[in-house]
Amino acid sequence: MRSHGVAAAGSPYKTTAYVAVWEPGFTGPELTFVEYIPAGTVLRVLSARKCWNCPFDDLIDFAVSVEPSPEKFANHPVSVRAEILAPPYVECRP
Fold first, then answer.
1. What is the DSSP-derived secondary structure letter of residue 21?
2. What is the dihedral of CA 93, 17, 49, 69, to 10 degrees?
């Protein structure tokens, strides 16, 4: 899984505002870093949200905690697209 540091929209600074986890990922001026999340990392779902005004899809993503948390994630909210929380990417455990 790929994680992407994202700067706030319209921000003149390249500081990370949040972290997005999804495949295949993206590029652009708002990108502050790309880091792969290694196998064995634990993602705990904290909350869910669904896009209510997306023109093509009902995008669903989850706020998660990451354990162990990479240093680049420090103090930034992390979200994961719903399709990433499905095989072959994830193994669910009780």
1. E
2. 10
**Facing residues of 11 across strands?**
none
* Amino acid in position 1: M
Residue 90 covered by a domain: no
SS3 93: coil
* pLDDT tens digits, 11-65: 777 899 999 998 887 888 889 999 998 888 889 999 999 888 888 777 889 999 9
The total domain count for the chain is 1
Q: Has residue 57 been placed in a domain?
A: yes
Joined tokens for residue 26: 């993206």
Please give the residue range of the domain that contains residue 71: 2-85
